[in-house]
Amino acid sequence: MSIDRIVFAVAGTFILLSVALGMSISPIFHHEYWLFFTAFVGINLLQSAFTGFCPLVIILKAFGAKPGQAFS
After folding, report:
1. What are phi and psi of 24, to 5 degrees?
2. For residue 30, what are the domain limits?
């Protein structure tokens, strides 16, 4: 699995989990402040689309994940 796909999978998982933890109708609701984490992940995805910089990519490269098209 390439770095690109790992970044998308991790971001999607974080977004779904934080929405579930932040929405009061969710069975695993914890607190509304989890929605700030959702916004943080979304903003980070948006800025990485323009700059090509993502903190997770640095970590994945250090662990030896193979680069993809977007984060080479």
Report:
1. -70, -20
2. 3-62
